[in-house]
Amino acid sequence: MMNQPKIPSDADAGDLPDVVDVVMAMGGATMEKPQEGQNKTPSPRLPTTSDSRLPAHLEQLAGRARDYVEAASSANTRRAYASDWKHFSSWCRRQGFATLPPDPQTVGLYITALASGTAAGEKKSVSTIERRLSSLTWNYAQRGQPLDRKDRHIATVMAGIRNKHASPPRQKEAVLPEELIAMLETLDRGTLRGLRDRAMLLLGFAGGLRRSEIVGLDLGRDQTQDGRGWVEILDKGLLVTLRGKTGWREVEVGRGSADATCPIVALETWLKFARIGHGPLFRRVTGQGKAVGADRLNDREIARLVKRTALAAGVRGDLPEGERGRMFAGHSLRAGLASSAEVDERYVQKQLGHASAEMTRKYQRRRDRFRVNLTKASGL
């Protein structure tokens, strides 16, 4: 009988398997020889391009296959999946369970621990548990050992967690145009950081862009390896080409009615004073605010910017500051456009890149509240 595979250590728990089926099927896979005292079950691995056992004519192909594997998901997704696998592996080790092969009963106990708060010190929301479960499914699939989520040990437990712990979705507050203008006034137009932040807020709002889409933009096509799209400044506005979850899409951002609130003017001003002629649009401002770095800004900066300026502008000042701080994030810009644009719904759906009108309606948080008063319409 084969021994149980060893439980990963903290050092390797977050590592993702280096698997390229086409190369392995062509004879590129080898078996690592176990060291004395280690698990006797050998594990397949994909040789590196420097491995002499890989045929020379396949070395370049293997390297390119790895690039495609990496491109199959975003960097943020890969980091989240690696973090989730590491957490699961650590929990398994503490309980004395093996992570491989996949055991539905073990996974069922893990999601129970997440829901009860015994796995990480606090109870996780249903959405977080479902994301962890999806992450484990993906990680097991990459290791060539699929996890059966329909198994009763997982499906029944998950159904019970939803019934007992599910709560209404907590959506981020939509930022409306007058609120956005107040947020812009909190930024210093005389600094590079202020010019950059104005451009990001206005472009994110007018384009209905996600925070990753804002910071993923380049000045032109194919200028960086990690870019998610590029912009073209035209006479009538800005054409944004984006690579999204479902493919490429174009977003048209028209010029504003005044220079102070025009996203194109804000972007042109930032590019001019930051002296950016190539590469990422939005970068970190360094040297006490007097220099612009070469690296792309992290998308978390968008969420921080929205939250900081909303608080500074007194948006939703009727609420305690702690509660207000939790209400705003990068999605507030997308929701703000959807909630304020008085146009045919299909245009908003296209701008936001939604596959269905139902998803767009979920974003129209404040526009449609009490617009139709059925109480009065019924005669009361």
From TrEMBL:
* Residue numbers spanned by region Disordered: 29-52
Tyr recombinase domain boundaries: 170-376
Its domain of life reads: Bacteria
- Give the matching InterPro entries: CB, DNA_brk_join_enz, Integrase-like_cat_sf, Integrase_catalytic, Integrase_recombinase_N, Tyrosine_recombinase_XerCD
| Biased segments, Polar residues type | 36-52
Tell me where in this chain the Core-binding (CB) domain is found.
59-144
Is the keyword rRNA-binding in the record? no
Locate the coiled-coil region(s) and give their ranges.
Answer: none
Please give the Gene3D superfamilies that the UniProt record associates with this protein: 1.10.150.130, Intergrase catalytic core
Q: Which Pfam family would be a valid example here? A: Phage_integrase
For this UniProt record, the keywords arranged alphabetically read as follows:
Chromosome partition, DNA integration, DNA recombination, DNA-binding
Keyword DNA-binding attributed = yes
Q: Which PANTHER family match?
A: PHAGE INTEGRASE-RELATED (PTHR30349), TYROSINE RECOMBINASE XERC (PTHR30349:SF81)
> Per its record, how is this protein called by name?
Site-specific integrase
Q: Which organism is it from?
A: Ollibium composti
Q: What is the lineage of its organism?
A: Bacteria, Pseudomonadati, Pseudomonadota, Alphaproteobacteria, Hyphomicrobiales
